[in-house]
Every structure is written in structure tokens, then in C-alpha cells.
């Protein structure tokens, strides 16, 4: 039985490949695949940005090597940024409860 | 209903705090808390290392600011490294199936 942390890491991989496998190189996200991933998997985050250019900005940030594609390593940096931001909210929420 | 990716990020936070909240600063992992987290949440990985000093080496790697504690941001870099390694195995496995 996988642990919570193992399942969480596995889920990062399966979610990435759910979209990366759709077209072209199955190991990278094209701009369209990244848009589909963000719209489907991060709807709350996307709505909170209120900026139609959010996906394009994220693409620019993530595509560190500028090849127009997002690798799993580049994708994980998005997850890290969002998780760190969420964890800070978690800490504030915890303080609020004391 | 949270998406798979949202649930995965949430799980990273809850797993971290399941151990960080045990003693001392509830926003960081002490060496003991890190050991407990790795032994419980990453047993397969730990067994594969076959090195009793694995946890101490990980602590040294993660504790970027040398304060003897591991913050969530430092912890996430462990998750990133392991996820990237696992994803490369996933790619090889996928190639093997073609």
C-alpha cells in the first residue's frame, strides 16, 4: 500500500502525463496541453488570477530552456511554488485557530 | 471537489505537518521528525538506500540554511528530487511497453 507521500508524488507524475501524452512529445507539455492541465487541474487558482494571460505567463516562467515545451522538471517548479504559497496560508490559518 | 493535483499538493502540506507539529517549532521538522517522516512515508526509498546514514545525509542536504531544522520549502526539494527520479523511471517503463 503506498503511503500518502508516495501517492502524492505518483499523482504529480500521472497528472502531468495525463496531459503530456495527448499530442507531440509525450514527455513534455505543449502550450495547449499546459493550458488544458491548468484549466482542469487548477481551476480555483486560475480563477483567482483574473488575468487571461495567466497561462501564457506561467508558460514563460516554466519553460526555463525556452524550447516551447514544459518538461516534468519544469512543471514541478509550478507545483512547488503553489504548494509553498498554500502552506503559508495553512500556517496563518493554524495561527488564526489558536 | 479538489482535483487530483490540488489533492496532491494538499497532501504534501498535511504530511509535512503530521510530523512537524509533533515537537518544538510546528512549522519545521527537527532531525527526529524528519527521520520519522522518512521511515513512515518513504519506507521503500529508505530500504533501497541500504545506508544507515541516509536520513542524516538527507538532513544535511535539505537544511539549506543550517539551522538544524527543515522548513516546508526545504522539505519540498526532497519531494521534487524523488518525483523527478520516479518520473524518469515512469518514462523508461513507458518506453519498455512500446
From TrEMBL, chains A, B:
Transmembrane residue ranges: none
InterPro entries: EF-hand-dom_pair, EF_Hand_1_Ca_BS, EF_hand_dom, S100/CaBP7/8-like_CS, S100_Ca-bd_sub
Pfam family, one: EF-hand_1
Keyword Metal-binding: yes
UniProt KW keywords: Calcium, Metal-binding, Repeat
Domain (EF-hand) ranges: 50-85
GO-annotated molecular function: calcium ion binding; calcium-dependent protein binding
Calcium found in the keyword field: yes
GO cellular component: cytoplasm; extracellular space
PANTHER family to which the protein is assigned, alphabetical: PROTEIN S100-A1-RELATED, S100 CALCIUM-BINDING PROTEIN
Name used for this protein in its record: Protein S100
Lineage: Eukaryota, Metazoa, Chordata, Craniata, Vertebrata
